[in-house]
Every structure is written in structure tokens, then in C-alpha cells.
Amino acid sequence: MSINEADQPDPVTDPVTIRAYPGGPLLVRGPFELRDEDGEPIDPGRATIALCRCGRSAIKPLCDGTHSISRKLRR
Q1: Which of 21, 27, 63 lies closest to 48 in space, CA to CA?
Q2: Is residue 23 within 8 Å of residue 71, measured between CB atoms?
Q3: Is Metal-binding included in the keywords of this UniProt record (predicted)?
Q4: What predicted TM-score, i.e. pTM, was given to this entire model?
Q5: Res. 74 pLDDT band, cuts 50 70 90
Q6: Is 30 in contact with 17 (CB distance < 8 Å)?
Q7: How far apart are CA 34 and CA 17, in angstroms?
Q8: For residues 16 and 30, what is the distance between their CA atoms, to the nearest angstrom?
Q9: How many domains would you assign to the chain?
Q10: E strands, the chain, where?
């Protein structure tokens, strides 16, 4: 088993968790499957991802932190 395999979640024993951060992204952890609008798989390249909720990310559906810049500009 490689180091990368050891870091991957076990789809049998590890639950998927989704945590909403106020004014920020949805943090998804666990053995999830991400698909685009056509049902094609998207490889996020990691076992934990942040999904954009503000709609301003340049890398949708993933979060790029733009929500924090938007909040600062509104102050």
C-alpha cells in the first residue's frame, strides 16, 4: 500500500461528512463522488474538498476563497 492509498478514505468504514461554514464553502470529507452537470465524474484530486456556495469561484464547483474577498469589499 502506498502512502497515498493510506490517506484515502475507506468507502466502507468512513462516512461522508459535509460541513457548512458561515459565509463560506461546504467542506466535504470522505469517500464522495463528484460529478458535473452531464453526470461525468470530476476528479478533485483529494479526499477533502471545499465546494463554492457564493457563486464567484473561478474554479467552480470548488471554492477558491473568493467569498472572503467579497466579504471584505462589502464592509
Answers
A1: 27
A2: yes
A3: yes
A4: 0.71
A5: low
A6: yes
A7: 14
A8: 4
A9: 1
A10: 17-20, 26-29, 34-35, 41-42, 48-51
